[in-house]
Amino acid sequence: MGIPNMQPGYARHLAAQGNRVWRACHRAAWLLPALVLAWACSSSGCGLLNTPEPMQTLVPRTPERTPTGVPLPMPTGTPVPAGAPDTLAVWVTELVYPLQGGEATRVLEQQISAFEATHPGLTVQVWRKKPEGKGGMQDLLSKASAVAPDTLPDLVALDTGLLADLSRKGLVVPLEGLVAEATQADLYPFAIEAGTVDGHLVGLQFEVDSIEHAIYNPSKIAVPPLTWSEVLSSGATYIFPAAGQDGLVNDAFLIQYLSTGATLVDANGEPALDKQALTDVLAFYQTGIERGAILTDVLNYATVEACWPRYLQAEVMMTDITSNLYLTVRAGQVTAIPTRGGQATALSRGHAWALTTRDPGRQPLAVKLLEWLMHPANVAAWSQAAGRVPTRRAAFEQMTRDAYVTFMYDQLEHAVPYATSQTHQRIYRAMQGAIGDVLGKGVQPEVAAENVLQAVNQGRSP
Predict the structure, then answer these.
(1) What is the CB-side half-sphere exposure of residue 422 using CA atoms within 13 A?
(2) What is the pLDDT of residues 355-409, one digit of tens each?
(3) SS3 for 455?
(4) Which of 55, 165, 195, 386 is the most exposed place for a label (fewest CB within 10 A)?
(5) Which helix (DSSP H) or strand (DSSP E) does residue 355 occupy?
(6) Domain boundaries, the chain
(7) Rg (CA), the chain
């Protein structure tokens, strides 16, 4: 894998970008035992190609230690034929290829080196990009396509929330007919949905940043409640974040709402909220607090991490938790978040590989690299190193089936992508306002639900 030197021009780009603060959940180590394929090779810095400049001298990597575990299957390949590209450019966000280096960086580098090894004459150049904002992945793809299309990469790894905008701008290539059907079929349904825009598959989600579920204290609860009625009648005490983040509703509320079968938007992307479902979730919150099943101060907690000390101090028997936090603490027994009818539901955020080259001479090799990185062994190895959850069922098959692996394998069947459009954000903001009205001001759930519909519909497209 080619890694550019940090010349003065590149240093200015790096200084301009700065270091983005990672979310705590992304720092958690993937602690699932006996996951195969612990490969490692050297870690190196990557330059930032934020404006078109000549390529710099490439620095070869030298393995730091002998890989351990079961050897990775090598990608099949032949020397790069005459006329085929001798380089592939890959852009990845810093969340996928950490600035600090570490195991996730080493694993990704090893996988790319293995691909290069079976394609003599090929160099894969990997460039880090900021996840968002000015100088971020979306910003650079948009600008480069307009002023310097020759500098666009062949393949990118980016947040699934960016796919819709990039697809509609023509910056990512539909994958139908390019990616093997077997690869697509092995992905969980939510991953296919996250990568599909206007009926076209434009991205392959390869990881889940973090997924929310619940844990309970088995010494206090013999059988975890799976429905609202069981929460209210079991004597269990329950805490979850209800304060929202940046004015947007927490996943805890969205999970409850979506578990009823209600929708957020229609086929045209316009709001399509279910007033009764909204009323029911708000009433559950209200009744749970009145009966002492839900802690009275849930409106003070914005994250599951903030709720954690209350559970740890045995002040509550049950709490919501993310996969990243659970893998760090390994406390309590996991269970699905209790919902109205007991339907398990989860929300997924993550990153996808997308094809950006439209050159028919470059696409076959770029797709071959994409499928190699999506190989179950590679997805599993990188997930282990990065502390993420894989999106391929076959990746889970390579893990030792402890209780948590079995739980997550099933939980992902019930996951849905977290949507980030402006319409969705308007809905999330109105929902959070309703929670504050019911729990903080005593507004009745039905009135608060009606207020949500009115607030959302005011911004509806004509």
Answers:
(1) 4
(2) 999 999 999 999 999 999 999 999 999 988 888 899 999 999 887 778 888 999 9
(3) helix
(4) 55
(5) strand 350-355
(6) 8-208+351-400, 212-348+421-457
(7) 23
As a CATH number, domain 8-208+351-400 is 3.40.190.10
Question: What's the order of all strands across the beta sheet hosting 238-239?
Answer: 238-239, 318-322, 212-216, 333-335
Give the separation between CA 163 and CA 196, rounded to whole angstroms: 8
Q: At what angle do helices 445-457 and 422-441 cross, to 10 degrees?
A: 150
- Look at residue 42 in the predicted model and tell me its pLDDT: 31
Helices 103-117 & 376-386 angle (0-180, nearest 10): 160
> Considering only CA atoms, which of 390, 365, 332 is closest in space to residue 90?
365
Collapsing DSSP to helix, strand or coil, 312 comes out as helix
Query: Topology of domain 212-348+421-457, per CATH?
Result: D-Maltodextrin-Binding Protein; domain 2 (3.40.190)
pLDDT bracket for residue 83 (50, 70, 90):
low
CA–CA separation, 420 and 240 (whole Å): 22
**How many Å apart are CA 137 and CA 123, to the nearest integer?**
22
* 339 Cβ neighbours under 8 A, 6+ residues apart: 226, 227, 228, 255, 256, 259, 260, 345
